[in-house]
């Protein structure tokens, strides 16, 4: 009887130990292998895919003008895109102007009112302004004959606001999956993550949802230790102390994910002050040059890049097609490209916005527009 009790206790103890132990090594290695396979797609040089049939872009653009409104002109990524949209538009005669603002809805409204008053053809809401936030004013613009379009804002899973004429979507959910797979591979399946987000920006939602879903699928031993939500207008004051506090309070954190790379200018100093530079890996998204410089200096590990010039060309192309009543693409179709220590120098030293992606897109768009 005593032997049976001892045996039962041993079996129960073994079962308890098994349930408390990490996931079997096979599951971890399988997840890492899947993550590596997924990431391989984004390490190849981007390829141009035509977004539509060729058209006479100069005839289409003649006399037209577009007001481009970022969610905040202090964002260097968006500023860079708009500057390049001005240049791409000039190739075919489209006037592009930026409505500069500091992220205040009252300022966005002033921009819409100007577009109505000065008879713009297009209002381009780029990467961050939810049309629903200023819907009455945008409806007034639509009623006045100004087409409202978005670019680099909606995820394909989003339902477009009725006031919007067309949207050039971007795969924010796809970005979330890339960041999750990279975290899995970079930590050999043992990532303890602090993720920095801005939930007020709608694309954050599918990005983070897909990040969590992919992490659960391919990294059973990975976990999000802390999610840090900071509004766009507060990045400069709140990200650094929040990240510093997180890594000091949770020494197991070995990865920080600022989901938009302009956040990195506050994450990197936080890790320096916490004495965690080089110990905590950093991965992000956008490909802003100063962040690619951080990779070269060893302060950031990976950035998912997009060519700003490619985005600019794709935006001008898609918005012109809509303005002229042509079939309009539903996505920007700008490929993502992973920069890390193995190839960050391809972006230049110091890094440049559009270096490292090749120029296939320029050749492609010039042919489409009839200006080769």
Explain the overall architecture.
With 372 residues, the protein is of the alpha/beta class. It folds into 2 domains: 24-45 and 173-305, Response regulator (Rossmann fold, 3-Layer(aba) Sandwich), CATH 3.40.50; 57-170 and 307-335 and 357-369, Response regulator (Rossmann fold). 45% of the residues lie in helices and 14% in strands. Helix 5 (105-117) runs parallel beside helix 6. The protein is globular and about 60 Å long.
Major sheet: arrangement of strands: 7-6-8-9-10-11
What is the level-2 CATH architecture name of the largest domain?
3-Layer(aba) Sandwich
**Roughly how much helix do the residues carry, as a percent range?**
40-55%
Give the averaged pLDDT, no decimals.
92
CATH homologous superfamily descriptor of the largest domain: Response regulator
Shape: globular
What distinguishing features does this structure have?
single chain, 372 residues, alpha/beta, Rossmann fold, 2 domains, six-stranded mixed β-sheet, five-stranded parallel β-sheet, 11 strands, 45% helix, 14% strand, disordered N terminus
Entry summary:
By secondary structure, the protein is of the alpha/beta class.
List the helices and strands and how they pair.
Blueprint: H1 2-20, H2 25-40, H3 57-61, E1 65-70, H4 76-92, E2 95-98, H5 105-117, E3 122-126, H6 135-143, E4 147-151, E5 166-168, H7 172-186, E6 192-197, H8 204-218, E7 223-229, H9 235-249, E8 255-258, H10 264-273, E9 281-286, H11 289-297, E10 302-305, H12 308-323, E11 337-339, H13 360-369
Parallel strand pairs: 1-2, 1-3, 3-4, 4-5, 6-7, 6-8, 8-9, 9-10
Antiparallel strand pairs: 10-11
Helix pairs in contact: 2-7, 4-12, 5-6, 7-8, 9-10, 12-13
